[in-house]
Amino acid sequence: MATYSTNEFKAGLKVMLDGDPAAIVENEFVKPGKGQAFSRVKIRNLKNGRVIERTFKSGDTIEAADVVDVEMQFLYSDDQFWHFMNPESYEQLAADKNAVGDNAKWLKEQGVCIITLWNGVPLTVEPPNTVTLKVVETDPGLKGDTSGGGGKPATLETGAVVRVPLFVQTGELVKVNTRTGEYLARAKE
Amino acid sequence: MPEPNTVWRPAASLEVLKLRARMIARIRAFFAERGVLEVETPALSAAASTDVHLHSFACRYTGPGDGALYLHTSPEFPMKRLIAAGAGSIYQICKVFRDREAGRLHNPEFTLLEWYRIGFDHHALMEEAAALIADTLAGSRALGTPEKLSYREAFERHCGLDPHTADSAALAAVVRAKAIPLSADPLREEADTLRDLLLTHTIEPQLGRGRVTLLYDYPASQAALARIRPCDPPVAERFEIYLEGIELANGFHELNDATEQRARFLRDLARRSIPGLPAMPMDERLLAALTHGLPECSGVALGVDRLAMLAAGVTSVQDVIAFPIERA
């Protein structure tokens, strides 16, 4: 079992904390003038995203987590799983609802995502920062309005609902920021 | 991490480096005015600190009588040998080296100002140190009258217990009450570990706000090289100086009893063996000097980088060191 000593702590290091994989966000070395040194770390639980603080005595060790990020292409989803493929090795794997979460609404076939694997199993799925998706349903809106002011809800081909300007019509392509869920622009094929 | 094509550049601005140079010139003037002699002692030593919490860099000397040499973690032992030889009050500004210490307030190689005053007790020396800090920061930071706070008062005020009489269970209860998220069970830790935990996490951030705090009379178990005053309970005549929550200096009313010093070295070495730390060769030349006779004196070591950091109004020592460790 691989372990890290506090001397190796740095932002980004993947470790096991309370049975869950976690990533060190920040490490502060503190030491009184004479005496015991400590590492005060902020650490993110990679399962639930929560950041907690923890203090380790210098020289303590912590178990390493087998966590890696890989780029994979989204293939399709069925009732239970979202299936991805490594575009270089053609290796496929399936992510469950816990890993995909709310990001399911941004996944379009062929889209390249970053999948965080823990012991080879998908932990989280990050869609690209922006995606281009087709509008499948929106009110016709006002003719001739090109100002972009106001807005209306539009349902996209993946099921996501975003606010778009009034001039956007059903069947058009729009570019959306997946981090904020905001419309960015109309797009061409 | 800095980009590879820019790491040749200094981390500190030239403006800060000039401020640092002026500060060091001011320190030399301070001691010249008071008749304290500047000295130099070797950075390489055949002996090393036995302190369980200090890690020396080891290197190898090739030559007659070759063998292991250690980079000093402080110039304390040879400076005491100079004093025992009759040098009087002395000071030194030098680089010291401590392995495993890196962070916002630590660089493994840093600049220490260390000085000794003959005939001073720790109270007289901490007041002189406060005067030096005020003098050095005069152009950049106005300080209020120094606050004197005993280690006991600090714990009573911020943790609600007497640190000298509280046992591990009482200290662990405060660690829990303060919600300090120690990775291990505090009940299984030594009392000194818990005291250090409470000091660094709860007390230090409150010290030295707008004025220096002089924290003094430490638990006898944390005496290091300080003499122990036989009161009830006994306390170590040791002090630390804080400004804006940052520890700037550590000083002692110096132990000058060779027998007691040897016993402390041996106790340190026994403690080092528990976590498997290498045994350090204790300084027999210091012990011989103490046996010859060390005049009554107090000594203090002050972190010059941290002082420069406060003078420059920056938040990390990396900003006042031309080439900190990752650019060294």
From TrEMBL, chain A:
Gene Ontology cellular component annotations, sorted alphabetically: cytosol
Record keywords: Cytoplasm, Elongation factor, Protein biosynthesis
Membrane-spanning intervals of the chain: none
PROSITE patterns in the cross-refs: EFP
GO molecular function: translation elongation factor activity
Keyword Mitochondrion among record annotations: no
Keyword Protein biosynthesis among record annotations: yes
Gene3D superfamilies for this protein: 2.30.30.30, Nucleic acid-binding proteins
InterPro entries reported for this sequence: Elong-fact-P_C (IPR015365), NA-bd_OB-fold (IPR012340), Rib_uL2_dom2 (IPR014722), Transl_elong_fac_P/YeiP (IPR020599), Transl_elong_KOW-like (IPR013185), Transl_elong_P/YeiP_cen (IPR001059), Transl_elong_P/YeiP_CS (IPR013852), Transl_elongation_fac_P (IPR011768)
Pathway as given in its UniProt record: Protein biosynthesis; polypeptide chain elongation
Cellular localisation: Cytoplasm
Function: Involved in peptide bond synthesis. Stimulates efficient translation and peptide-bond synthesis on native or reconstituted 70S ribosomes in vitro. Probably functions indirectly by altering the affinity of the ribosome for aminoacyl-tRNA, thus increasing their reactivity as acceptors for peptidyl transferase.
Name used for this protein in its record: Elongation factor P
Organism of this sequence: Candidatus Muproteobacteria bacterium RBG_16_65_34
TrEMBL record, chain B:
Catalytic function, reaction form: D-beta-lysine + L-lysyl-[protein] + ATP = N(6)-((3R)-3,6-diaminohexanoyl)-L-lysyl-[protein] + AMP + diphosphate + H(+)
SUPFAM superfamilies registered for this protein in UniProt: Class II aaRS and biotin synthetases (SSF55681)
Origin superkingdom: Bacteria
Keywords, sorted A to Z: ATP-binding, Ligase, Nucleotide-binding
Keyword Endoplasmic reticulum: no
Single GO BP term: lysyl-tRNA aminoacylation
A cellular component annotation (GO) from this entry: cytosol
InterPro entries the UniProt entry points to: Aa-tRNA-synt_II, aa-tRNA-synth_II, aa-tRNA-synth_II/BPL/LPL, EpmA, Lys-tRNA-synth_II_C
Pfam annotation, one family: tRNA-synt_2
Keyword Transport set for record: no
GO molecular function, one term: tRNA binding
Domain Aminoacyl-transfer RNA synthetases class-II family profile intervals: 17-324
Record's subunit section: Homodimer.
Protein name listed in UniProt: EF-P lysine aminoacylase GenX
